[in-house]
Amino acid sequence: MIKQMLLIGLGGFVGSVARFLVSKLNTRVDWFSIPIGTLTVNVVGSLLIGFLIGISEKSPILTVELRMFLMVGLCGGFTTFSSFSGENLMLLRNGQFLPLFLYTGLSILLGFTAVYLGYISTKLLG
Known about the structure:
mainly alpha; 81% helix
């Protein structure tokens, strides 16, 4: 149990630092006032977790410990919808309704598409 918690914590650390670095896009890219860094994190994280789920179903290559590190730790630390919710609240409070709907819609559509593409990409591996 302690080994799994340490693996999850380490994965969470790596994921959180990666998320912080990608979120810097928010200060560099302005596209309809959408937080591009968080959108990128959510889409990439969805693609990655879909891929990992697909691999886990196909092969024993991902041990329980590695799945804990990658899926719960890394992906859990990397993707977060708490930032998403907070940013949507700010857009709502600022009366930025078009960016609010664009951001929410793109996050959901692209996130679901990415998780599906990550999953089906494992079917191509043989």
